[in-house]
Amino acid sequence: MLSRRAALMVGAGLAAAPVLVQAARAEGSMDTSAAAPADLSSLPRIRHELAIPPLVHDHEQVASTGPRIVEFTMDIIEKEIQVADDAYLQAMTFNGSIPGPMMVVHENDYVELTLRNPATNTMQHNIDFHAATGALGGGALTLINPGEQTVLRFKATRAGVFTYHCAPGGPMIPWHVVSGMSGTIMVLPREGLKDVAGNPVAYDRVIYIGENDFYIPKDADGAYMRFADAGESYPDTLEVMNKLIPTHVVFNGRVGALTGDNALTAKQGERVLFVHNQANRDTRPHLIGGHGDLVWEEGKFHNTPRVDLETWFIRGGSSGAALYKFLQPGLYAYVNHNLIEAANLGATAHIKVEGEWNNDLMEQVLAPSPYAGT
After folding, report:
1. Distances (CA, A) of 222 to 77, 154, 225
2. Is 305 exposed, middle or buried (0-12, 13-18, 19+ CB in 10 A)?
3. Band of the pLDDT at 14, cuts 50, 70, 90?
4. CA distance 212 to 277
5. Angle, alpha carbons 206-210-215 (nearest 5°)
6. Cβ–Cβ < 8 Å for 151, 113
7. 165 labeled binding residue
8. Residues with catalytic annotation?
9. What is the rounded distance in angstroms from the CA atom of residue 26 to the CA atom of residue 16?
10. How far is it, in rounded angstroms, from Cα 197 to Cα 180?
11. Alpha-carbon gap, residue 146 to 122, rounded angstroms
12. CA 107 → CA 65, 186, 206, 280, distances in Å?
């Protein structure tokens, strides 16, 4: 059951957005029991344990079988997280991580997700897959109270990287999203990725970046406020949210989550697929010192990738993918190229690349030395 505070919050949110909520109620109350059952008894099943971002669970790049039912389980976890040294967020998460874990399947596979909302939570939650068809992306069929679980199955009919997020109705939707409830599902073509000429292309590793904008209130003295639970944080957070000016723009949940000791790693000569998700705002990733060799800017793998991009654009509410082969060793910075958000608000990741320097690509002809001119 919902707590009294959570019920009041949900009720207030629903009253504030009747059109959207009525649509959600109409879709959610639809009785699907009379629909002809899908006979999938002949399909094999495979189960994947989800990895903690920026890692991604093991998967095939080229499908070795026909379509399968791919099973996942995710727990919704409400918890406080530290966003920066002086800032905490009452977060709502898929599986305890921000972003939510990436799921990988192949086109025409069936995704079967068990979604669980532990009784220790205070809020209703659901999941809207941008990769799915109908029922508000599954959101209208997955709304669960604390202490409930649901199982949703959908056919992955479109290839690409797609956002998923919580969408419980009305102003609860943006609040849950900017509190951490978003992630990515990658639907690979069965034959794998292809370059602009239609030739097969593979990657050596995936780096999964989830970009989040957070809106943490401050008190009268200018210090970030801290709350006992998500419900208590809502009124003050809503006031900051509605000004559309984030206090933090971060990769993978907090400032510095992917820098310093937490920096990502790669090797010279490796092809790395960067998958970038932003469920709420537009963003523009850039790899300082590198490029997007092949970029699926809209995230859709049957579209011809763009070539040699310096910066690419990810629309709010979507995921994109970029493939780069690292040619030089050293430290690379992967940033949101709104440099204010990268340097001042937290949207920066580092990649440490091992290898041997190639002077043909870049050479320091003269090291810094005295200059006597005026």
Report:
1. 29, 47, 9
2. buried
3. very low
4. 9
5. 170
6. yes
7. yes
8. 125, 128, 130, 165-166, 176, 181, 286, 310-311, 337
9. 17
10. 38
11. 6
12. 12, 9, 18, 26
How much of the chain, in percent, has pLDDT values that exceed 90? 89
Q: How confident is the model at residue 26 (pLDDT cuts 50, 70, 90)?
A: very low
Enumerate residues 6+ apart whose C-beta is below 8 A from 113. 71, 72, 73, 74, 103, 127, 151, 152, 153
Is 362 annotated among the ligand-binding residues?
no
Confirm whether residue 302 is marked as ligand binding: no
Alpha helices per DSSP H over the chain: 4-16, 18-28, 172-178, 230-241, 339-340
Query: Angle at which helices 18-28 and 4-16 pack, to 10 degrees?
Result: 110
Supply 258's token pair: 């992917």
160 C-beta neighbours (distance < 10 Å), count: 24
Ordered by where they begin, the domains of the chain are: 4-25+43-188 (2.60.40.420), 207-354 (2.60.40.420)
Kindly tell me if the per-residue pLDDT of 12 is higher than 80. no
CB 177 within 8 A of CB 165: yes
Any binding-site annotation on 166? yes
Question: pTM of the entire structure?
Answer: 0.91
Q: Is the peptide bond before 171 cis (omega within 30 degrees of 0)?
A: no
pLDDT digits over 166-222, tens only? 999 999 999 999 999 999 999 999 999 999 999 999 999 999 999 999 999 999 999
Lookup result for tokens 């189960």 = 47
